[in-house]
């Protein structure tokens, strides 16, 4: 079994490559390194003791991509590559539509030409229409996205559904991630955002490491138990293993299926800060700030379908997420450049 991983040097991609290699599958990774370092995969290879061919290329370069498909006989593809900063997508929509959509079309064309018809896609809980009752099942309404980033996920889901419908034998899983956090327990690979982190957990770990002074909590007046927003955080190792389970499912099924990858349990920002302090014995100074535009009060998954159909559940606790995030940051205070 040989799997092509696009966006392989990134945060979720690198953790997934590790789980695929541990499963005994062969992995080939591509990435344009616009938001990641090849050091992540060097470390994955070191941790697993297995080779991991990596090609630095932009997915929109159809010639270069075609050469990779010519060189290996892939049994499946996992498509992580894309730009993912919500706020940046509002300021630069064409960058996001251009990169994320063209990359996917280019990948699908290469797959059709090579006769490879099995693909997992990194979708997001952000495709769900705001205001739906919680927890969110896969059949909850989608659309009404609050950012161009979210719309790219929504559009790519449709591109893949249509491509599978037009190519009998294709099998597609649209995986809607909730909030991935944490790192491999070795502390050798983890999340390494460039610049000021947009997301909560990397901001917390950078405050703990002394790289930032204080966390600003974006809003304390939401309609939630403690007034701060509630999200479904899941450990990135559980998420990576969800991809192994979904790929095994695709080996046996054709057509398109959608799966939530989340825990089904929501935690507030205040609970996250408290859990991080408790798990690691460090203090996180914070101040209350105004709401961040586009945030919703609460969102969490109904993961029942993933459990019953894929046999997958998120097993790691909030304490594991906090401990492993800090273990990675402490060992690599400047990320992969340390
Ligand atoms: P990441 O930025 O670490 O990984 C994405 C990778 O894609 C990066 O390494 C980047 O260099 C690469 N890339 C971007 N455009 C490319 C192109 N044109 N050609 C080749 N490579 C390209 O992000 P991540 O957190 O690992 O996310 C992986 C995927 O999961 C993304 O598609 C993201 O939208 C999706 N996702 C992430 C989250 C999250 O909270 N991290 C949640 C839901 C969905
Ligand atoms: C979590 C909570 C913030 C930073 C985003 C994308 C979503 C998905 C995951 C890709 C919110 C609060 C944050 C800070 C804070 N990505 N916060 N201070 O917004 O749930 O989801 O990442 O698909 O599409 O929108 O995650 O980590 O940014 O925020 O108070 O410095 O932490 O307001 O309530 P979010 P997040």
Give a short overview.
This protein is α/β, with parallel strands linked by helices and 338 residues long.
Please tag this protein with its features.
two-stranded parallel sheet, binds UDP-4-deoxy-4-formamido-beta-L-arabinopyranose, 338 residues, globular, alpha/beta, binds nicotinamide-adenine-dinucleotide, 7-stranded parallel beta sheet
Q: What is bound: which ligands? A: nicotinamide-adenine-dinucleotide, UDP-4-deoxy-4-formamido-beta-L-arabinopyranose
Number-wise, the strands total: 13
The neighbouring-strand order within the major sheet is 3-2-1-4-5-6-11
Could you give the order of the helices and strands? EHEHEHEHHEHEEHEEEHEEHEHH
- Report the radius of gyration as a whole number of Å: 19 Å
Biggest sheet details: 7 strands, parallel
- Give the number of helices: 11
Mass-distribution shape: globular
Provide mean pLDDT, rounded.
98
Helix content: 40-55%
Q: Class by helix and strand content?
A: alpha/beta
In angstroms, what separates the terminal alpha carbons?
A: 35 Å
**Which stretches of 5+ consecutive residues score pLDDT under 50?**
none
Share of residues in strands = 15-25%
Describe the structure.
With 338 residues, the chain is α/β, with parallel strands linked by helices. Helices cover 41% and strands 17% of the residues. The strands form 4 sheets. The protein has a 7-stranded parallel sheet, with helices on both faces. Strands 7-10 form a two-stranded parallel sheet. The protein binds nicotinamide-adenine-dinucleotide and UDP-4-deoxy-4-formamido-beta-L-arabinopyranose. UDP-4-deoxy-4-formamido-beta-L-arabinopyranose binds at residues 84, 86, 124, 126, 179, 198-200, 203, 215-218, 229, 231, 269, 292, 295.
